[in-house]
Amino acid sequence: MAIIVDLDVHLAGRGLSVGEFADAVGITPANIAVLKNGRAKAVRFTTLDAICRTLGCQPGDVLRWVPDDGTDEA
């Protein structure tokens, strides 16, 4: 299973740089890069709240699940 973070699409659509977004969310640009590149092991709810507040979206708009082998796992 893989959780994909779709921040690039939202940042591009709003014309936000990683630096501007990081400032608005309150985390470092390096941590935004970790999220964007799929290397994050966890996301705090406070960070997810700040991301959604900044982008005006729902958590499901930036996070999606993709099965590794093409089958749903429950």
Automatic annotation (TrEMBL):
Pfam families: HTH_26 (PF13443). Signal peptide: none annotated. Gene3D superfamilies: lambda repressor-like DNA-binding domains. GO terms for molecular function: DNA binding. Residues 14-62 form the HTH cro/C1-type domain. It comes from the Bacteria. SMART domains: HTH_XRE (SM00530). This is Helix-turn-helix transcriptional regulator. It comes from Streptomyces luteolifulvus. The lineage of its organism: Bacteria, Bacillati, Actinomycetota, Actinomycetes, Kitasatosporales.
